[in-house]
Amino acid sequence: MLGYDWPRVHALLNDLPAALLVTAVVFDLIGLATRRPGFLQVGFWTMLAGGVGGVVAVVSGLQAEESIAHGDAVHRVMETHEQLGLITLGVFGVLILWRILRERRMGGGERAASIVVSLAGIAVLVATGLYGGRLVFEHAAGIPTTVLQAELQERTRDHHHEGAAGSGPATGPDSSGGRQAPGEHVDPPGAPPHTH
Q: What is the chain's mean pLDDT, rounded?
């Protein structure tokens, strides 16, 4: 649709709403614990922003699903990821509507109930992210077959790390008396370079 690379758009858009929703629940918990309405107001507006972002993330995910080449294994994981995403959006959509209607009149028990529902929403949100991660890291979903084949060929070639004395920020002496960069491996003088 519209020529966009939807898997990349979805990857770009799905982190911020998740972070906002988690942050909203944290502010609500602080507000409930301290009985300070300022924290609850921040929680409400943060949840509202996260809910709007969640709609955008879900729509982009539905578009991405249509453009990813995949087999049965990816399809099953993708369907679960989609269902969890829709449940997450539904839970927080209900919470947002509840709070729009009741925010200023909520008693302690009702507020506690909304927090419990929020925590359940966060649990589903985490599960959604786990399945999204499985799509990318276990099934390479969204990576075009030609790119994946080229990467697999590249990985089968020998890959060498050779320490270069004096490169990068100084962190400590290497065996030749120079300085080595953080995380850099320097082979002893005369030793062949190591391979992975």
A: 84
